[in-house]
Structure formats: structure tokens, C-alpha cells
């Protein structure tokens, strides 16, 4: 389903979008029948190849005014050739000079019941060129970069803490620890084991799925939520991620 068509009506849908989640649930050993029969579950599926309308990129945990030094960038971009030559994703990149750079994309979505608590499950697919179990400056370029997901009624923003340092206004935790507003879905490492002879690493597709019951939040008084996908880095180098697809299952508690 195109993002443009989703925007015309409620972004979260019921039964017509349940089927894409069944593989997600079975991969984690969950009970498909419970979810499939549950009238309180709504689904959202976004394919970033279709566009990034309404999505915004943001950066936190770095000094204000140092965007050029940190080589921050984002946008709708062609995927690396190793992934595909015809599709696009949401690219976000930065050089982690602070040893703590947080990069994220966010969008407000609708279609939920107002002021209602939902259990949320996330399935995020992205492209990564960081090999598994490599050693890097400050940390591994793959295993020390954590993918975080979350949703709250408040828009995530980088706020000056009064000392010139930009911090996220959400409780996302720090690096390997999640927070009350965002949890860890996994890390940035791909399935290729580290090779000292492979200087130029190849982008591979990776999919992460959060556990049932791991995250819940409350919609606002209009049934909206702000979604967030991000990377929390302990690797003191450049990370460039291509977000490809996102699925969210929202089950009313």
C-alpha cells in the first residue's frame, strides 16, 4: 500500500493489514491465532521505497552547531547496489565524534482510539554494511550501534540542555540500555562475520522484530502517536543506515 494512500485515511488499519504480520509473529514463536482473531489489533505497514512523506530526520547527543563536523545527513535515497538497483529507502548518516550520537527518523500517525494504551510490536527492515563481531574505535561498528524503536504522543525533538549540547526530549535510554519511550530492537551488525581483509563492506538487509509485550504507550486525545526509528551509537566512526520497511502492530490493552 502506498504511503500517499495511507495518509488519506487512518494510517493504522485492521484486518486488511493483519496478514503481513503473521510471518513476523511466527518468527518469534508467538501464537498467530490469538493475534489473528483479536479485533483490537491494528496494523501499519510502510515501505520507504514509496516515499518519505511526513517523515523527518533528527540527531541528538552532540554539540549544537557541529552538524558539518559530525557529517550529518539524511534523505530519500537509492539503496546500495548490493541491496537492489531499483528501490529507495530513508538514508540517515553521521560520524559519531561524541561517542554517543543518536540518529532517528520520526512521523506522526493516526487511526488509533484516543487516550488509549496499546501494546506495540515493531518489525523494522534496513540495510547495513557493518559486519558482525568487528572491533572499532570506541566500540564495534555493528554490535555497538543499537537500533531503537518507540512511540509516544509527544514529538521527539533534540533540545538544547542549556550547555550547548543537544539531547532527545524522550527517555530513549543510552546506547545498550533502552528507556521508557524507546526500546532496543537489536544491533546494526549484519550476518557477515568480520574479515580483516574486507576493507569495503557490502550492504546486507537485516530485519529486527520486538517481542510481544515489550513496549506499550498511550495515544493522544485524537488517537495519534509519534513513531521513532533510531540508532544509538557507541562506535566512534561513521554509521550510514538505509531504513527500508516498517511494520507496527498495535493491540489495545
Question: How does this structure look, described?
Answer:
Helices cover 8% and strands 40% of the residues. By secondary structure, it is mainly β. It has one domain (3-252): Galactose-binding domain-like (Jelly Rolls). The strands form three sheets. Strands 1, 4, 5, 7, 12, 13 and 15 form a seven-stranded antiparallel sheet that branches. A five-stranded antiparallel sheet has the order 2-6-14-8-11, with no helix packed on it. Strand 9 and strand 10 form a beta hairpin. The longest helix has 9 residues, at 19-27. The model is unreliable at 1-9 and 15-37 (pLDDT under 50).
Structural key phrases:
253 residues; 40% strand; mainly beta; seven-stranded antiparallel sheet; 15 strands
Largest sheet: 7 strands, antiparallel
Mean pLDDT: 86
Uncertain residue segments: 1-9, 15-37
CATH class assignment: Mainly Beta
Number of domains: 1
In whole angstroms, the N-to-C terminal distance is: 27 Å
Approximate strand percentage:
35-45%
Corresponding CATH architecture: Sandwich
CATH topology: Jelly Rolls
Tally of separate helices: 3
How helix-rich are the residues, as a percent range? Answer: under 10%
**What's the gyration radius in Å?**
18 Å
Amino acid at each position: 500500500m502506498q504511503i500517499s494512500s495511507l495518509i488519506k485515511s487512518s494510517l493504522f488499519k485492521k484486518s486488511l493489514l493483519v496478514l503481513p504480520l503473521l510471518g513476523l509473529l511466527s518468527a518469534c514463536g508467538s501464537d498467530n491465532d490469538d493475534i489473528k482473531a483479536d479485533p483490537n489489533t491494528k496494523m501499519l505497514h510502510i515501505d520507504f521505497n514509496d516515499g518519505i512523506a511526513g517523515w523527518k530526520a533528527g540527531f541528538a547527543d552532540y554539540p549544537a552547531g557541529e552538524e558539518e563536523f559530525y557529517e550529518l545527513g539524511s534523505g530519500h535515497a537509492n539503496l546500495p547496489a548490493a541491496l537492489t538497483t531499483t528501490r529507495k529507502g530513508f538514508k540517515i548518516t553521521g560520524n559519531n565524534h561524541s561517542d554517543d550520537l543518536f540518529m532517528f527518523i520520526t512521523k506522526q500517525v493516526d487511526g488509533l482510539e484516543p487516550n488509549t494504551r496499546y501494546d506495540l510490536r515493531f518489525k523494522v527492515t534496513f540495510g547495513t554494511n557493518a559486519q558482525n563481531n568487528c572491533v572499532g574505535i570506541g566500540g564495534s561498528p555493528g554490535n555497538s550501534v543499537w537500533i531503537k524503536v518507540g512511540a509516544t504522543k509527544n514529538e521527539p525533538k533534540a533540545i538544547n540542555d542549556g550547555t550547548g549540547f543537544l539531547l532527545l526530549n524522550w527517555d530513549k535510554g543510552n546506547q545498550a540500555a533502552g528507556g521508557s519511550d524507546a526500546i532496543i530492537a537489536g544491533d546494526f551488525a549484519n550476518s557477515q562475520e568480520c574479515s580483516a581483509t574486507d576493507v569495503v563492506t557490502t550492504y546486507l538487509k537485516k530485519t529486527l522484530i520486538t517481542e510481544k509485550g515489550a513496549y506499550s504507550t498511550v495515544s493522544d486525545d485524537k488517537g495519534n502517536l509519534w513513531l521513532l526509528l533510531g540508532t544509538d551509537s557507541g562506535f566512534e566512526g561513521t554509521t550510514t543506515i538505509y531504513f527500508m520497511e516498517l511494520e507496527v502492530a498495535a493491540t489495545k490493552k
